[in-house]
Amino acid sequence: MIVLENLRKSFGELEVLKGINLTVDNGEVVSLIGASGSGKSTLLYCINALESIHAGKVTVDGIDVHAKGTDINKLRQKLGTVFQQWNSFPHLTALENVALAPRVVTKKSRKEAQEIAEKQLVHVGLGDKLNHYPSQLSGGQQQRLAIARALAMEPKYMLFDEATSALDPELVGEVLDIMRLLASEGMTMIVVTHEMSFARDVSDRVAFFKQGVLAEIGPPEQVMTNPQDPDLQRFLSTIG
Amino acid sequence: MTQVFTTLQWSDLWFLLEGAWKTIQISVVSILIGTLLGMVFGWLMSLKNRALTFGVMAVLDVFRSVPLLIQLILFDSFIAIAGFPMPAFWSGTIVLIIYTASLVAVVVQSGIEAVPVGLRNAARCLGLSYWQEMRHVTAPVGLRTAFPSWLGVALATIKDSALVSAIGYVELLRASQILNTRTQESVKIMLIVGLIYFAISYPLSRMGARYEQRQKS
Ligand SMILES: Nc1ncnc2c1ncn2[C@@H]1O[C@H](COP(=O)(O)OP(=O)(O)OP(=O)(O)O)[C@@H](O)[C@H]1O
Ligand SMILES: [Mg+2]
Questions:
Q1: Model pLDDT for residues B70-85, shown as the tens digit of each residue
Q2: Contact B119/A101, CB-based, under 8 Å?
Q3: Best exposed site among A84, A191, A214, B45 by fewest CB in 10 Å?
Q4: Where's the ABC transmembrane type-1 domain (chain B) (predicted)?
Q5: Which domains does chain A have, with CATH numbers?
Q6: Considering just the CA atoms, what is the radius of gyration of chain A in Å?
Q7: Does A54 reach chain B within 8 Å, measured CB to CB?
Q8: According to CATH, what is the number of the domain B10-216?
């Protein structure tokens, strides 16, 4: 379970998160939607401690993410993160990309790490690209590689930050399909997205962000078909 | 022709080769230690700590901008005055090491900074520690970017090692000067010396060319 309590975060003068409360239950898929600059990415980065926080608390399975004594490297193994940019390690093959963390972080043997990697690459449909370098893969394939790389650590949660925004339109589908697959397998996911159909069809709850405030949250049929917040109504009508 | 062989003898070639061997020693030691030191300095400068970067930069700038010849003579005189005389090989090599390190530092810094932050964050998000990320992502990716510039520094170090002759160390250039004075065959000698420098540098240049070929394919 991921719990955000009165989470606050500023960049200098700019307060980006103004007291967020959110609980994500195990097995739940929560989509974060909202205008550019409303603080969606920052929220994700506060969960995996890529960003520090100024007030409030983030706990993952009861562990305080930002507490002094927390072993963040260990905690991050539970939190798979996929970014807008796929960030493949350019000097490693697909198989090595995925096998790196199991080998280095969880000290699996080379063979074991490769087995894990192969399994995850097959999982995301890249079973025939094991020995390809990222430069030989399309954006969609690289993003699926990034997902496989995160899954290889057997995370309990997956955080997606606009995983399809940097992709050519024709490649978006293959990545969304993998995300759907993960959701159907019961993965707990927090998904920042501009893909409204994904938010509607896959999420258990949709959260609308407005200038650092969680303005509206609920099941998609409520938030997306019957929005209360006027800004959300406008947002949904512009984005389609 | 006959005159040449009477003045310039085979033993003189041996003398030059001995000088070349010393040039190689100075160069290898300077490049190896200078590169290791330069990596540490480059890493320090990449840490985005203003005070640290400024401090390291300021010191390295001195070594980068004062001509090597002057550094060599100053350091050599200084240690003599200070009462720590050391063989010319070491006083020359120490200066060359620092000079090389100051050049490598910039190369390594820009190599590290060429690694996208997103790539490093992605690695950290998988649970890699700072040093694991450094070792498995930033170092291999960044050093690959830096390699061609590093090669330039290494080649320059080989050539600059000739300046150590100014403090009396008989490496290749100094050996050739001694022969020049004795034989007055400067053109021939310089031709030979040029060829020897080329032979020393050639493997490194080849390495660079091969590397670029590999990058392309
Ligand atoms: N490292 C940073 N330093 C300063 N300001 C930042 C930093 N990161 C984000 N911001 C600011 O914080 C605000 C929220 O940014 P954030 O990236 O979380 O928005 P977002 O909702 O993800 O937007 P988008 O849909 O464009 O990705 C923006 O105004 C942004 O300019
Ligand atoms: Mg964002």
A1: 999 999 899 989 988 8
A2: no
A3: A84
A4: 20-208
A5: 1-78+187-240 (3.40.50.300)
A6: 18
A7: no
A8: 1.10.3720.10
